[in-house]
Specification:
The complex is a heterodimer. In chain A, 35% of the residues lie in helices and 26% in strands. The model of chain A has no long low-confidence stretch (mean pLDDT 90). Chain A is built from 7 helices and 10 strands. Chain A is an alpha/beta fold. The radius of gyration of chain A is 19 Å and the shape is globular. Chain A has a domain of 177 residues: 3-Layer(aba) Sandwich (Rossmann fold), CATH 3.40.50.300. The longest helix of chain A has 22 residues. Chain B folds into 2 domains: 59 residues, no CATH class; 213 residues, MetI-like (MetI-like fold). In chain B, 85% of the residues lie in helices and 0% in strands. Chain B has 13 helices and no strands. In chain B, helix 5 packs antiparallel against helix 10, helix 8 packs antiparallel against helix 10 and helix 11 runs antiparallel to helix 12. The longest helix of chain B is centred in the C-terminal third of the chain and has 38 residues. Chain B is globular and about 75 Å long. Chain B starts with a helix and ends with a helix. The N terminus of chain B is likely disordered. The chains are: A alpha/beta, B mainly alpha. The interface between A and B is medium-sized, with 27 and 22 residues.
Chain lengths: 254, 288
Amino acid sequence: MSQNNILEINNVSKVFHTKDKDVEAIRKVDLNIKEGEFISIIGASGCGKTTLLRLIAGLEKDYGGDILLDGKRVEKAGLDRGVIFQDHRLLPWLTVEENLTLGLEGTKKELHDQVQEYLKKVDLENFEKVYPGQLSGGMAQRVSIARALMRHPRILLLDEPLGALDALTKMNMQVEISKIWEEEKTTMLMVTHDIDEAIYLGDRVIVMRPRPAEVDEIINIELPRPRLRSSADFAFYRNKIINIFNQSIVEYAI
Amino acid sequence: MANTITSTGAQAVSKQDKLNSFKKLSGDIGSSKFGPRFLALINTIAVPVLLLILWQVLSGSGLLLDVILPSPLKVVKAFVEMVKDGTLGTDLAVSGKRVIIGYLWGAGIALILGVLSGLNKVVERVVSPIINVIRQIPLYAWMPLIILWFGIGEVSKEIIIARGVLIPIFLNTLQGIKGVQAEYFELAQVLELKKSVFLRKVVLPSAISSIFTGLRLGAGNAWMAVVAAEMLGGLTGLGYALMKSREFLWSDKLIALMVVIGVIGVIIDVILRKIEENTLRWKKKTAK
């Protein structure tokens, strides 16, 4: 492996075996991710991109090829990979603080300090005693990000993290995630079907073609941060990706 | 409502007017003289009060023998007498103790088996069919065998109660545990939760509503089972007091005892509800 690759995806395939047939979800995907990078994976719904993320997370097993995290093959889930699901997946019967510290060891004081520190990072100071049901969707997702970051993962995997939010909250959250990424310098890999979101956050955007998922094109986003959604350069990338999608739609139509 | 308005215009409008005027009327009652809570109370006690009046009229009419239907007043007197001479207290204490012991055994076994079966398929495949067969044989059909084996002493009564408690608590616990969402199992993997933490912080809280339903149904069963068990044998307890009252044609005592049994059943349910509400504080806080 090369020196600064944190995650290497080599020739990865995944087939789901159902009762009457085998469904090929991913075919021969290659992808290397450098430490500190933000990678957006974009593709149509149901194209298998979430399956790829779940393989990296260790939530799906039995795959072909290798997924190497720091050179070690991924076989199961673990704390070295933080996962943000589309739903915040906080436990409704635990307070924000209890959710954040779930399963963590340490003295009360240590844990409390960590909770304060990470709630501050996601702009939710003084929310530790609140139950998830009392939070808005965006706030809950921020707690979920804090929960993942508190465990110091090598890489943060975000599975359509803002898919359930309204347009405005979504834009605010993109700013928020961008800010956290720059401060924490955590490597992040996000799956999305929102082109603007992919460009706004990604150093590289991986465009996938569907069924089975294959890498169609990898686009380096060479825009200074913070990025301006209304800029001409942003529109250039947007058009580029839209064209790739149009292309594949034509191909599949034939 | 919306349908009726769009379908038949004029008629619907008049209906709406009526509804509005009715709302206004009831609103007036509510605001002027009585609070809404008072009205709710009236709703609840109207039928019982009517039945009580009917009972008084019937028993006073001379159509029925006193021994068949004593007047409400006589029943109250019988109740006071039982309280004063201490028989009610003694019977209550004896039955109560049996219920508590039987309930704790039954609930304990049911919870352990229910949780284990919910978490482990092998355990479920062993336990579930057995419980299912036990369940199909009515509680009363168990009594002769239990009495044959354990006599008419305390043990057999406690076993009968435990058997009555076992089924609803087991079934609801199992259902609750199996209902834990697959998403939480994923979360547990991602957060590398230890089994014990996962059980305490995720599985049990997730199943707790269902478990409480079982505990409440079980408590109702326990209270019914103790009366049934005491009617079959022994010389103490509320069930025995009922049978004795029948033999001596003390219908006033008999009815008073029935009311006591009913009221205590309700009290047990209310207490368990309160405990449940307390345990599920988060639900109250997050209710929108």
